[in-house]
Design a protein that fits this description.
The protein is α/β, with parallel strands linked by helices and 382 residues long. It has two domains: 11-175 and 361-381, Rossmann fold; 178-358, Glycogen Phosphorylase B (Rossmann fold, 3-Layer(aba) Sandwich). Helix content is 41%, strand content 17%. The protein has a seven-stranded parallel β-sheet with strand order 5-3-1-6-7-8-9, with helices on both faces. Strand 13, helix 12 and strand 14 (301-304) form a beta-alpha-beta unit.
Length: 382
Amino acid sequence: MIAHTQNGKPCVVHYSSVYLPFTCNWLYHQLIYQERVKPVFLSRKVRHREKFPGITVHSLDQYSLLRQAAEVAHFKIKGYFRFMDRVSRDNRVRVLHVHFGYHGVKMAGLAARLGVPALCSFYGDDAYNFPQLRLNAYHGLFAVFNRILVLGPAMKARLVQLGCPPEKIIIHHLGTPVREVPFRKRQAEPGEKLRFMLACNLVKKKGVDVALRAFARLAESYSFSVDILGEGPLEDELKRLTGQLGLTDRVTFQKFKTHEKLIAHMHSAHVFVQASRTTEDNRKEGTPVVLMDAMASGMPVVSTRHSDIPEIVHDGVNGFLAEENDVDSLAQALRNMLDNREQLGSLGYAGRQHIEREFDALKQARRLEDIYINLLAEKATG
């Protein structure tokens, strides 16, 4: 028999170090769309609370500095935070769900102490870069946690390589709130300037420099513009590169936007570009949610065969794929879009259908609840 909270729903306690970074709409949707379970969130810090309302949050930084120091000392000695143990028990926790593998390493002590079914979700760098820095870092996590959630087959293969038993791994997609993203058919008349768009953190794994070099290869033969939405450590370097490539009159840089304004901007563009690549220190994407947003809006995509992006973008069906970190290959994929503008509408429609089937945040929240319920049933039958 599955024990429930007083409101009749089993409590799922979530953990990530911050509730929530500004760009973590995708994690918020996992929480807010759940109906059959009660989510309670544990963290060390709270940020952007007004942007992510409606979730019960307990955070270390809500306590005095003296209490915080005592909690940290207890964690170093015992392997878990006392307040997290207390909050979990007060809420009659039935499932622990930790987000990001490196947080799972730190929460393995809490998972063992609570003795409830525990899951850890991996999202990108935690599967690829973090294990490079700490060999065998996940052995304890793989032993304690009952299920490991990944974003696609590439990430699954990586974790099996790191020692995770394959039977513990479940592929579970992220999602975007499809019903909040109006579909708009893209079309461009012959001779009309094609409007491309990128939206990302301006860091190396996003491959923005590769995209700029690919666009430069096409500048003499085609009319187009490029909007780059984002911020990050490479912003000044990328702006200089834009000038060096002679693209200043075609490329504009803009700051991050709210999700609503991002979607509105997408509706003004024809094609979305995501030139993701693996960096020298093995930083990688998972499945970028911005691709789901773009495709839900009806925009065809040019991206790369990187990590689990092929789970989202099907080459020749809802967009075009290039080899990662390959200027020539990306330029050809962009050229395919420029030369086949009559396919913008059909590519975009196929993308919308794919997102509705496999990457709808509401459906994915229901599928995540199924995973919780199945774990509880397994525990109950023993």
